[in-house]
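Q: I'm building a small set of examples for a reading group on sequence design. Run inverse folding on the following structure and report the sequence directly after it, with nothing in between.
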C-alpha cells in the first residue's frame, strides 16, 4: 500500500535528517516506528504527508508517486496525518473541528460526523465545547476523529500519547487498536515503544536517519539488544 524508497529529507539546505530511508506498509497493517530522539521518525511522517519534500528517493501510495504533491492532494488521495502538536483548533467547538477535518469532501461531512459521534461518545457529549476545554486525552481523540472525517485508507500518527497520563495513554492505544481492527492501515511514531510494539504488526527501528532494524513487532520487543539500547532494558 505504501512504499518509501531511499528517501533523503531534512529541514535546511545542509540538514539531512533522513539519509536513505526505506519502508513498506501492507494494506490493513499497523507499522510502528521506534528509535532515539533525532532518529528521523517524525521527519519521515512529515515527508510522507507532504509537509517536507524529499531531496531524493520516492514515496509511492497505492501505486502512485506522491512525493512532491501538496498535503491537501495527499489527503485527498486517502492518506491522513495526525501531527503530535497543533492538531486541533483550540478556539473552535468540537463540531467545528470535525467540519474542518472533513474539508476534502464537504458533501459527506454530516454522514461522517454522525459516524464519528457514534464511535466516540465523549465527543458527541461535548460537541458544542471549545477544543481548548477538553482534556489532553480528549483532544487527541478529537485529532484522530478529525483525520477520520477525511475517510482515509491509511493514517499516520505522530506520537499520539505524548504528554498524556498513563490512563489516557492506555485509552489512546485502545482507540488505535480498535481502528486497526476495523481495517485501518496505520503507521505510528510512538515514544511508548513497548506499548506500541504490543499492538503493532511490524516495526522499524530508525537510528541517525537510517534503517537499523525491522521485523515483526513482538520479535523486536523481545530482542535483547534492542531492549537494552532503545526500550529501557
Amino acid at each position: 500500500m505504501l512504499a518509501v524508497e531511499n528517501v533523503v529529507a531534512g529541514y535546511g539546505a545542509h540538514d539531512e535528517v533522513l539519509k536513505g530511508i526505506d519502508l513498506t506498509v501492507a494494506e490493513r497493517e499497523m507499522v510502528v516506528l521506534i528509535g532515539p530522539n533525532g532518529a528521523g521518525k517524525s521527519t519521515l511522517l512529515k515527508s510522507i504527508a507532504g509537509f517536507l519534500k524529499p531531496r531524493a528517493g520516492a514515496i509511492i501510495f497505492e501505486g502512485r508517486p506522491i512525493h512532491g504533491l501538496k498535503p491537501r492532494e495527499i489527503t485527498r488521495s486517502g492518506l491522513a496525518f495526525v501531527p503530535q502538536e497543533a492538531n486541533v483548533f483550540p478556539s473552535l467547538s468540537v463540531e467545528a473541528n470535525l467540519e474542518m477535518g472533513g474539508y476534502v469532501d464537504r458533501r459527506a461531512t454530516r454522514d461522517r460526523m454522525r459516524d464519528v459521534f457514534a464511535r466516540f461518545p465523549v465527543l458527541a457529549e461535548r460537541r458544542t465545547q471549545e477544543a481548548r476545554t477538553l482534556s489532553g486525552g480528549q483532544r487527541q481523540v478529537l485529532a484522530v476523529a478529525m483525520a477520520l472525517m477525511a475517510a482515509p485508507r491509511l493514517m499516520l500518527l505522530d506520537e499520539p500519547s505524548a504528554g498524556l497520563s498513563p490512563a489516557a495513554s492506555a485509552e489512546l492505544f485502545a482507540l488505535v487498536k480498535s481502528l486497526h481492527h476495523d481495517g485501518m492501515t496505520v503507521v505510528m511514531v510512538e515514544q511508548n515503544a513497548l506499548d506500541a510494539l504490543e499492538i503493532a504488526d511490524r516495526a522499524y527501528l530508525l537510528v541517525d536517519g537510517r534503517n537499523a532494524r525491522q521485523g515483526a513487532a513482538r520479535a523486536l520487543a523481545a530482542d535483547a539488544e534492542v531492549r537494552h539500547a532503545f526500550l529501557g532494558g
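The first helix runs from residue 41 to 49.
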